[in-house]
Amino acid sequence: MTPLPPGFLRAPFAHRGLHGAQTPENSRAAVRAAIHAGYGIELDLQPSRDGRAMVFHDYDLARLTGARGLICQRDAADLGRLRLAGSEETIPTLPDILTLVAERVPLLLELKDQHGQMGATDGTLEAATAAALAGYAGPVAVMSFNPEMMIAMAALAPDIPRGLVTCAFADEDWPQLGAARRAELRSMADFDAAGASFVSHEHHDLATPRLADLRAADAAILCWTVRSPGEEAAARRVADTITFEGYLPEIPA
């Protein structure tokens, strides 16, 4: 287990960067805005066809770029020319963002599951992420809903802190998963196998007893995605820090 860096739990994390009407999510502009405000930054990673780690949330390009098709079906250079949400921003690579952040604020990177079953992947995104982070000295951690991706990251980049993104895994929200796999994910059964040091759990489900067990074992508890001061106050009764969007939380001293 690799613990989170000192100070990683102080500042709240801006969900997909500090984005808004004129600032697309997961963009360089959203990253700059979060840095300027002093927040940590949570970002999403998807693989390009040629094996680069792209900073982008969706599997499909349509919502954010208007282009047709899947992000994994295009090369990084092509993706880097697509405009985000009608802005002048384009899709960045993870190395682009690391250069921009330059170790100034904590980064929380979510590797997106690649086949919907939360099982072993072909390793493309994990390898690209590890390669991009090699030599990066700033505070950074990786996480995923898919524990197998974190097990792979443990082998590729053992010194980078790893976590699981978790929730109640309700049947209606995860119909593509079998009941047994949902139960495993709900219980965070792979926490130790992944060498995880934290979870980022859905803020509406923070009362689940498993989080108390993890805290007793010195795991850090993060949560997603808080959208108001009231939700933050409730979440902070359990969580060490929050991922937020839609308002500006205070940064604890």
How would you characterize this protein structure?
Strand 7 (198-202), helix 8 and strand 8 (220-226) form a beta-alpha-beta unit. This protein starts with 12 loop residues before the first strand and ends in a 9-residue tail after the last strand. Helix 1 (28-37) runs parallel beside helix 4 (94-101). The chain has helices at residues 28-37, 62-65, 76-79, 94-101, 124-133, 147-156, 179-186, 209-216, 229-235, and strands at residues 13-15, 40-47, 53-55, 107-111, 140-144, 162-166, 198-202, 220-226, 241-244. An eight-stranded parallel beta barrel has the order 1-2-4-5-6-7-8-9, surrounded by five helices. The protein is an alpha/beta fold.
The CATH architecture assignment turns out to be: Alpha-Beta Barrel
Percent in strands: 15-25%
Strand order of the largest sheet: 1-2-4-5-6-7-8-9
Q: Tell me the span between the first and last alpha carbons.
A: 28 Å
The share of residues in helices is: 25-40%
**CATH hierarchy class name:** Alpha Beta
**CA-based gyration radius:** 17 Å
